[in-house]
Design a protein that fits this description.
Elements lengths: L11 H20 L7 H8 L1 H49 L1
């Protein structure tokens, strides 16, 4: 079963900010005590509500990455299965000749 993506209820302006700077920068700001140089990110430092939204957004992004990996793995197994079927059919056709 594919992983469900836990959609975070985040205001659009905050979501835009998080997506602009990306997962690495947002995670770094949350995990450390340094003051970011970007003015927009300084709001994240002292705002507990915005920090919670950032954590929820990171969880959402991690779920999306995991789901993508699962889809790719399913696709890889499907390709391997089709190759095996092709080999079996080819062997059967050669045997019947």
């Amino acid at each position: 079963m594919l992983r469900q993506i836990r959609q975070a209820d985040i205001p659009k302006d905050e979501r835009d900010l998080f997506e602009r700077y990306g997962e690495n920068v947002i995670g770094l700001v949350l995990a450390s005590s340094f003051t970011p140089a970007a003015g927009a990110l300084t709001k994240l430092q002292g705002n507990d509500n915005m920090k919670a939204h950032a954590r929820d957004w990171l969880t959402e992004r991690a779920d999306a990455h995991e789901r993508r990996e699962q889809r790719l793995e399913i696709l890889e197994w499907a390709i391997v299965g089709l190759i095996v079927v092709e080999i079996i059919v080819d062997a059967m056709l050669r045997f019947l000749r």
